[in-house]
Amino acid sequence: TWANVPQGPPDAILGITEAFKADTASHKINLGVGAYRDNEGKPFVLNTVREAEKRVVGKKLDKEYAPITGLANFYTAAAELAYGSNSAPIKENRLAVSQTISGTGALRVGAEFLAKFLPSKKILLPTPSWANHKAVFSAAGLEVGQYRYYDKSTISLDFDGLKADLEQAAPGTAVLLHACAHNPTGVDPTKEQWQAIFNVVKERQLFPLFDMAYQGFASGDCDRDAYAVRYFVDNGLPVALNQSFAKNMGLYGERIGAFSIVCESPEEKARVDSQLKIIVRPLYSNPPIHGARIAAEILNDAQLKQQWLGEVKSMADRMIEMRSLLREKLENLGSKKDWSHVTSQIGMFCYTGLSPEQVDRLASEFSVYGTRDGRISICGINASNVDHLAKAIFAVSG
Ligand code: PLP
Ligand code: TYF
């Protein structure tokens, strides 16, 4: 029956883990997927997550279906974390918001909404962007275009290119913006640049869709990382927002996220809410409850929330420390290359500037695995493997 089914390619990022697992070298390093590791290279479950989970289990709650848009005490708290507790759309009951199956599910629900209700049916993504973005938006039936973002020659933001491309976009086009800790480049606009992007988006009447998968991971401060989203909203632009708690709560496999749309009135919000439900029903009916209960427990308990913000900061700080260490080791080895981008970039990823061939050599000669675009996941670096990593990068980069 399935004789005509062709073999598909592996996921460009998740496929790396397979290659890593097959490598028998004891000094192998997986810098492919963006999943936080502690200083021993082990997956990390946050103390606040353990505590919240204990409390949730202690409540002996039932396992009934969640409502279609999820648990209200989760998505309300999630929205406050992103927009700020004084945010006008929240206070004025005009934020349509739904729990989703992590950030990817938020993107897909948002994509389906745009495909149904955005007349242009067109979205622009930065070049480069997270590989799954194009797949999600195309799958929902949107036309996917690009805007310039990253300049290879300077290893930094191509701000002029970005502005020029948005200035040329047709009114009504959606624009995907990484709210913070851009994946894969680790290059974010400055506050002044965000303000300029806001002006172009507003003047050109583009529709801003923020993807915030890394709130807290860029600067260690969840409020600071929400700067761009809040600037757009506080200055009157209706945005849509995707949130994920995979990274900042380490709830990767629990699949906890949220999708929200700023509306003009409670009446508009009610109509949008009704359509979000219509989109979710045939996709997965209703979202999982366990992770949502954990996240809600943390976000709604002032003390636990404070402790959690501290844990987010310590994860972000460890990555910043590893960036410094890697740069220092490369310079100490005598590399004549400029490695300042290793420390100036932020978030989980470093866009090294290595070519696909150099990345191939990292794997074949040094058992160091990253993606072929030269991205390495900073979370995979620790005090025990940074020497080997620096030597490997130095050897292939000449
Ligand atoms: N958006 C970006 C930019 C990402 O890097 C990721 C991956 O972590 C996601 C969305 C969604 O991830 P998840 O579905 O695990 O929340
Ligand atoms: O970019 C990353 O590594 C993370 C994790 O299909 C990820 O965003 C990667 C690929 C994928 C899903 C999640």
TrEMBL record:
NCBIfam families, per the entry: PRK09257.1
Gene Ontology cellular component terms for the protein in this record: mitochondrion
InterPro entries linked to this entry: Aminotransferase_I/II_large, Asp_trans, NHTrfase_class1_PyrdxlP-BS, PyrdxlP-dep_Trfase, PyrdxlP-dep_Trfase_major, PyrdxlP-dep_Trfase_small
Residue ranges constituting the Aminotransferase class I/classII large domain according to the UniProt record: 27-393
Molecular function terms, GO-annotated: L-aspartate:2-oxoglutarate aminotransferase activity; pyridoxal phosphate binding
Lineage of the species this protein comes from: Eukaryota, Fungi, Dikarya, Ascomycota, Saccharomycotina
Assigned keywords, A-Z: Aminotransferase, Pyridoxal phosphate, Transferase
Assembly: Homodimer.
Single Gene Ontology BP annotation: L-aspartate catabolic process
Residue ranges of the TM segments: none
Family indicated by similarity: Belongs to the class-I pyridoxal-phosphate-dependent aminotransferase family.
EC number from the UniProt entry: 2.6.1.1
Protein name per Swiss-Prot or TrEMBL: Aspartate aminotransferase
Reactions listed under catalytic activity: L-aspartate + 2-oxoglutarate = oxaloacetate + L-glutamate
Cofactor(s) for this UniProt protein: pyridoxal 5'-phosphate
Top EC class, one word: transferase
SUPFAM superfamilies the UniProt entry points to: PLP-dependent transferases
PANTHER family per the UniProt record, alphabetical: ASPARTATE AMINOTRANSFERASE, ASPARTATE AMINOTRANSFERASE, MITOCHONDRIAL
Note: In eukaryotes there are cytoplasmic, mitochondrial and chloroplastic isozymes.
